[in-house]
Amino acid sequence: MLILLGLALLIAELKPARVSRLAADPAQAGAAGIDTAYTRRGLAAAIRSAAAGVDGVRGATVKVKRRKITVAATAAARDKAAARSLRDPILAAARQRLTALKLRREPSVSVRVTPRSR
After folding, report:
1. pLDDT reported for residue 27
2. Measuring CA to CA, which of 7, 69, 79, 103 is 20 to 30 A from 48?
3. Half-sphere exposure of 108 toward its Cβ, with a 13 Å CA cutoff?
4. pTM
5. Which residues make beta-bridge pairs with 63?
C-alpha cells in the first residue's frame, strides 16, 4: 500500500507544472489571429517595475492571480503618512502598465504600502 502511495506521489512530482498565462487581446495588440498571452511571472515583473518606478518607493513584491493583482510596496520614508500617500500613485502606475499590456480581462489591483522599517 505504501509503495503505491509513494509511486503516485513520485508521478505527481515528475509531471511538469502547467504554465498559467493571462491572455492578451490580439486585436488591440496588433496581432490579430495570433494567440498572445503573458505568464504570471512576466506580468508580476512588469507590475513590479512600474510600482518600483514611483518616486518614494523602496521596493515592491507582486502576486498575480487570475482575477486579482496584489502589490505590497515598501516606502523609502519611515513616516506612515508618507507611505499612505504613495498608494494612489502606485495604483495608477500599475493600472497604466496593465492598460499598456492590453489584457483581455484586466484583473483588479490592490496596493498595500508599508513604511520603511529601519
Report:
1. 75
2. 79
3. 3
4. 0.77
5. 70
Tell me the per-residue pLDDT of 20-46, one tens digit each, with 9 for 90 and over: 888 888 777 566 677 888 999 999 999
The average pLDDT across 6-17 equals 82
Q: Mean pLDDT across the stretch 75-91? A: 92
Alpha carbon dihedral 49, 53, 56, 62, in 10-degree steps, equals -20
> What are the φ and ψ backbone dihedral angles of 71, each rounded to 5 degrees?
-110, 125
What single letter denotes the amino acid at residue 69? I
Q: Hey, CA dihedral for 66, 111, 105, 24, is it positive or negative?
A: negative
Query: Which residues, in sequence order, are CB contacts of 87 under 8 Å at separation 6+?
Result: 111, 113
d(CA 100, CA 25): 11
SS3 content of the chain, % helix, strand, coil (to 5): 40, 25, 35
All cell numbers assigned to 70: 496584489
Distance CA 64, CA 42 (A): 10
pLDDT at 31: 65
CB 108 within 8 A of CB 91: no
